[in-house]
TrEMBL record:
Taxonomic lineage: Archaea, Methanobacteriati, Methanobacteriota, Stenosarchaea group, Methanomicrobia
Protein name listed in UniProt: MarR family transcriptional regulator
Domain of life assignment: Archaea
Organism: Methanococcoides methylutens MM1
């Protein structure tokens, strides 16, 4: 259990956010996040929506059904989350 989970609990949204943080600068698919986190595809789809609405995550459509996701590194809130995550890791909470 890492610091984010210790503070906020192990939720699907924290799990998805951590996965995207670990792959910052990369794009991934819902199924890729689901495979890596052990969450169902529908759970990932559900919890990624608030992250999209907050512009923490960006979505790129490739065709009609394929979507990729990545952290929005141009968003100040995303950068604050990354800084917070890195600071927590240094503190070994």
């Amino acid at each position: 259990m890492d610091a984010l989970e210790k503070i906020f609990g192990k939720t699907a949204q924290i799990t998805v956010l951590k996965n995207l943080i670990l792959h910052k600068g990369e794009s991934t698919y819902l199924s890729g996040i689901a495979d890596e986190t052990g969450l169902s595809h529908s759970s990932v789809a559900r919890v990624i929506e608030p992250l999209l609405k907050a512009d923490i995550v960006t979505e790129k459509r490739l065709g009609k059904q394929i979507r990729t996701f990545s952290l929005n590194l141009d968003n100040e809130l995303t950068l604050l989350i990354l800084e917070f995550y890195e600071d927590l890791a240094k503190m070994k909470v």
